[in-house]
Amino acid sequence: MGASHSRGELISDSDEEEYEEEEEDYQDSKEDTPERSSSGRRPKTPSSLDEVEAKLKALKLKYPTSNTPNPSLKNAVKLYLHIGGNTPKAKWVTSEKLTSYAFIKTAKIDGQDGAEDGEESENEEESGDVWWVMKVGNKIRVKVGVEMQLKSFGDQRRVDFVAKGVWAMKFFSDEEYKSFVSKFNDCLFENTYKMESNDANKVKVYGKDFIGWANPEAADDSIWEDAEDAFSKSPRSANPVRANQDLREEFEEAANGGIQSLALGALDNSFLVGDSGIQVVKNFTHGIQGKGVYVNFDNGNQRSGLNSVHSTPRKALLMRAETNMLLMSPKTEGKPHTTGLHQLDIETGKIVTEWKFGKDGTEITMRDIANDSKGAQLDPSGATFLGLDDNRLCRWDMRDRNGIVQNLATSTPVLNWTQGHQFSRGTNFQCFATTGDGSIVVGSLDGKIRLYSITSMRQAKTAFPGLGSPITHVDVTFDGKWILGTTDTYLILICTLFTDKDGKTKTGFNGRMGHRVAAPRLLKLTPLDSHLAGVNNKFRNAQFSWVTENGKQERHLVATVGKFSVIWNFQQVKNGSHECYHNQEGLKSCYCYKIVLKDDSIVDSRFMHDKFAVSDSPEAPLVIATPLKVSSFSISSRR
Question: For the whole model, what pTM was predicted?
Answer without folding.
Answer: 0.85
